Description:
By secondary structure, the protein is of the alpha/beta class.
Amino acid sequence: MRKTEPLVSVLIPSYNHESYIKEAVLSVVNQTYNNIELIIVDDGSSDKTTDILRELHKKYNFNLSLQENKGIIPTLKILRQKAKGKYIALLASDDYFHCEKIEKLVGFLEHNPQYAMVYSKITIVDNNSNKLMKIEECYKSGRIFEELLMGDFFINSVSVLINKEVYMQFDYDEGYIEDFQMWLKIAKCYEIGFCNEFLSYYRKHDNHLSSNILKMQEAERNILNLYKNEPSYAQAICKWNLRWLSNTALCYKYKAIIQYLWPSICFCTLKRISFIRVIIKLLLPCWKKKL
């Protein structure tokens, strides 16, 4: 791509990912799209992440800042204020991009200016970047607010490219989940595009923040409750209750029964296979170690 192509700001909030940060940075440096500014804020890492970043900075001269630990959402607010690009790409410091991600998504938005952002499909990888699975859901373009509210499919932040002007219209609320709340805000007001290609890699590993399922579920509920006045809220919260029941049924049985079982019974019938599977989980002993 020529320098006349739109500038893309890639934002990396970095924290304690000494084993993965180099791969994340190199996946940006080695993009087929050239007009990129890479901005990294390290959020008080206590491992060797900052040492690795300093060495990479010497070689590639990206925008690097180090700070005391503030948390993911304050760090994202700092990052986006530094961005100068027409488009914003978000990258966690343990994930990485396909080499053509930026080129293909910029092309998508340039040819489809009606969309405020575009997302693509992701591949799950392990600690060693071995591919585990490709995620296929019922993705779609357009006015997708209700589908996101229902949890019909999920948009991973590593997969997106956002128009900066739109992105800056919405602020982050404090909480445990940053991406879901932002996509709902954008989707409520704008159309969102979908690129049917696998262009990003999302890492699953032992110390992944999303492994804390109870915090995740509480954060999801808090986000959903912001939309209580939506006509589809009642149906959405029923669907989420069934999902939360399923996720807690094996190893958090008390919480599953007390908080999620009755709302799920009201929503489901015993003929629903998904509900039957949850009941089986509740009856089985927990074989996984609690996180």
